[in-house]
Amino acid sequence: MDFNSHQIHLDDSQFVEDETPSLPIYLVSGNIGALGEQTVRTVLPQFQGVRWPIVKRPRILKIDQVVHIVNEAKETKGIIMHTLVDNDLRLFMNQYAMESDVLAIDLIGQLMEFLMQKLGQKPLGQPGLYRYKNQEYFDRIDAIEYTLDHDDGKNSGSWEHAEIIIAGPSRLGKTPLAIYLSVLGWRVANIPLVLGIPTPPKLFELDRRRVIGLTIEPTELLAFRQHRQNNLGVNKKSDYNNITILHEEIEEARRIFRKGRFKVINVTNKPIETTAAQVITTITRQLKS
């Protein structure tokens, strides 16, 4: 039975594998389980020498799901940490786990019981209310995380989840632009086009309305690359800072943009804010057409 579970591990560098036997910890939540995961990530590094298997079980909303998790924890000799806000489900979890001789740690139950008595009212029992009320903030964080994970052509298997895909030659400013857009709430994938290296076929499979090709005048690109080399203490001549090769790189990128029928934005002498506004306007207009 699959309840959207997956296993994670804390940073392996913090632990020494197999020094001490460790039991799985099941993180159970009615929503995505961020509170439980943060609690575990805060506490476990205090105990060195153990690799802790963490099994996340989000969106647990039914009795039969709770029964399955408790039974699995009993089989694996694991423990349960839960943040269930549905009072009936929470109480059932605690009772059934106790009857099954499984340790279930109720992370929010004591606080909820106190507030129920103090305020004289029952909780709404709706998971995810904090996230719902702060959805814009969480969407922005998700966008930033997605963009960082998809910088410089990484993780091509999930490019299709990007809201904006930007492509262009190296040192043209794709990464700063992508991060700037992500802070505004856009999930961005940034794909470098390198002369002599085949263009990823996946680029041409994406929704072309979301793809923006970036171009620049060769002299400005040369200045950017020379500045980069100076910062690194590298002064030798190479294809990287050869103006003839730069012309070829930019022309090859334009050929790719024509093949994919991608909209092209020239970033020459433009501040990042101007380019970002142009990207957003172009994408928004294309999606409406």
Protein architecture, described:
This protein has helices at about 35-45, 65-75, 85-100, 110-120, 130-135, 135-150, 175-185, 220-230, 245-260, 270-289; strands at about 5-10, 25-30, 55, 80-85, 105, 165-170, 190, 210-215, 265. The strands form 2 sheets. It has a 5-stranded mixed beta sheet, sandwiched between helices. Strands 7-6-8-9 form a 4-stranded parallel beta sheet, with helices on both faces. It has 2 domains: about 5-135, Response regulator (Rossmann fold, 3-Layer(aba) Sandwich); about 135-289, P-loop containing nucleotide triphosphate hydrolases (Rossmann fold, 3-Layer(aba) Sandwich). The longest helix has 18 residues, at about 245-260. The chain is about 45% helix and about 15% strand. The chain has about 290 residues and is α/β, with parallel strands linked by helices. Helix 1 links the parallel strand 2 (about 25-30) and strand 3 (about 55). It contains 10 helices and 9 strands.
